[in-house]
Amino acid sequence: MVNVSLLLPIRSLKEEQDVESFEPPPEIDLRRQLKVLIHGWNADRNHFSILPIRTSYLVQDTHNLLVAEWGLIANLLYPTARNLVVPLSNRIGSILQKFIERVGIDPSQVHIIGHSLGAHIAGNVGRTFGGKLPRVTALDPAGPLFEPGSEDAVGPDAAQFVDVIHTDGQTLGEDTVRGHADFYPNYGLSSQPGCETLDIVTLHGCSHLRATGFYGESIPLPDSFIACACSWEEISRMDDNCLPDVRETTSRECVQMGEGTEPRLVVWPS
Fold it and tell me: Is 140 marked active-site?
C-alpha cells in the first residue's frame, strides 16, 4: 500500500528518516525499547492529537521512537479509512518487521501505541506479529462503525498485554472492553476535564484527545494517574468506590495508568 511509512525522528538530525531506506547511526542505542506511534483519522504524524506523546518521548530520550505516517489515507472519508484498517495495519507491520530484522531489534523491545482509528490499526499491527509483541496501547479507540464483536477492532489477542484508555466512550470513542486492562478516567465519558464549556461537537473532540494528553503526561510523570480496579458494572454505575482516593481503605488493586502500567501487576476483576 502506497502513502504509508514509518519515520524515525532523531533530535540531532534536521529531518525524520524513513526506516525503509535509513541506516541508524552508531550513536543510536538499538537496545532501547522501541515505541511505535500511530495517529488517527483526519490527522498525520505531526497532528496535535499525538504531539503530547511524541514530544514527551523525544524530550525524555530514553526510548527509540517510530512515527507512522498514513495521513493521505487518514484524510479520506471516514467509512473509507475505516475499511482500510487491515491493509493499513499489514503494511505498517511489514515495514516494521523488516526494519527490526535489518537492524537487529528484538520484537520483545517493541511497544505499539495508537489513537482513535490508529488504536485499532495498532491492534492489527500487533496481530501481524502473531500477538507476540509485549504490549499494544489503544488510546480512545474509534467508536463509529465498530461493533463489540468487530474482528478488526483492537483486542486482547493483539499482544501479550493490551491496555486501553477510554475518554469519549459512546461517541467518537467507545466504552467496549478491548484489552487486558481498560482504563476509564472520569468514567471514560465526555466531558473530560477542560472540555466542559465547549459546544457539543468540540466537546467530544476535546474529550477524544484527552487520552493522548493523559498518556503523554504519564511519560515523565508516571504517578499522575492512579487507577483502581473495578468491575464493568461498577464503572457503569459510576460508583464512588472506583475512585483512587479510596485506595488506602480498600483491598482493590491500584496501578499507574499510562506509560508506567506494568503488565505483571494488572489483574482486573471481570
Answer: yes
DSSP the chain: --S-EEEE--TTSSS-EETTT----TTS-TTSPEEEEE--TT--TT-TTTHHHHHHHHHH-SSEEEEEE-HHHHTS-HHHHHHTHHHHHHHHHHHHHHHHHHHT--GGGEEEEEETHHHHHHHHHHHHTTT-SSEEEEES-B-TT--TT-TTS--GGGSSSEEEE-SSTTTTB-----SSEEE-GGGG-SPPTT-TTS-HHHHHHHHHHHHHHHHHHHTT-TTS-EEE---HHHHHTT-GGGSGGGGGG--S-EEE-STT--GGG-----
207 is catalytic: no
- Domain range 5-223, its CATH number among 3.40.50.1820, 3.30.479.30, 3.40.50.300, 3.50.50.60: 3.40.50.1820
- For residue 13, the model assigns a pLDDT of 63
Least confident of 84-98, 198-212, 233-247: 233-247
Using the predicted structure, report yes or no on whether residue 267 has a pLDDT greater than 50: no
Indicate which residue of 5, 56, 116, 190 is catalytic: 116
Per the prediction, the chain carries an average pLDDT of: 89
Domain boundaries, the chain: 5-223
Tell me which of 163, 207, 208, 218 is the catalytic residue.
208
How much is the pLDDT for 200?
A: 66
Q: Is the pLDDT of residue 251 over 80?
A: no
Catalytic residue among 120, 140, 168, 207: 140
